[in-house]
What does this fold into?
Amino acid sequence: MSQKLHALILAAGKGTRMKSELPKVVHPILGRPMVAYVIDAVKAVGCEKTILVTGYKSDLVRQSLRADDLNFVEQTEQLGTGHAVQCYAKVCSDRPDNLLVVCGDTPLISVETLQKMVEIHRHQKPAITMMTLMMSEPGNYGRVLRQNNMVTAIREAKDCSPEELKVKEVNLAVYLFDSAFLFDNIFSLTPNNRQKEYYLTDLVETAVKKGLPVVACIEKDESSTLGINSRQHLAEVSTILQKQILTRLMESGVTITSPENTFIGPEVEIEPDTTIHPGCMLSGKCRIGRDSIIGPACRITDAVIGKNNKIEHCVISNTTVADGTKITPFSVIEGDS
It folds into this structure.
């Protein structure tokens, strides 16, 4: 009998360093809200239900996602990660066997490592499986404390002693909980720290004190752990995701003559033997047939382009272009949105 796995995505913050009135998690990356990438990742590892904890402008977060298969819980006060999970636990009527908790501002999160976490958790059955990373310069990340190589606690950097700050293994705020343990202990958290917040990380010490195992799954790719706290981070992550998309397309048989001068969104499909020239911006749900030449300088949005088309210096949106259509350069073709 398979165990029921749900995902809880923490998405309540404003993101003050973004200098924006938008909730942080809806800032777009390649045309999609950043949290959409996290939602894709948890679904990819088999989460049957995805719940978002929202707070700042929660209605706007819901509107931005427009997904019927998402569930929402509101955190009216941002009192820490532990408090966010308490808000979920108070209203949860469908308890899973295991709960995956992730942050909504980590769009590069590795599906491969999440899958490894799920497999470790199902095999070893600990109270908590957590994702960690070895960093040469841990900075403000929470430190993973061990004794005899066993995880014993997570200490937030602001609460660390000078000796604890030397630890290189850091917490990535990705947890897989045994739900029985989580629901039994989530309301025992107290804000006994400098931030006066309820830390979800304190549950690690709770488990250890009760003699329950805590297991670490170590992430190898530091770039996949990048959280977004500023416009600079937004640009860095956009660049990484764009490179991944272009690489995938080129490996599938698409020629991109100037990758550094081409924008292609994550929902664009391009068939082999098509060439994309510089200055093109392809976004939304686009599909481009094979043996076509697109560009230079085309903007195509939410359109279907058939096979054997040559399109230069055009704006095309919300329409379908049939196979072998002759389109005059500098045309604007816009359907009903």
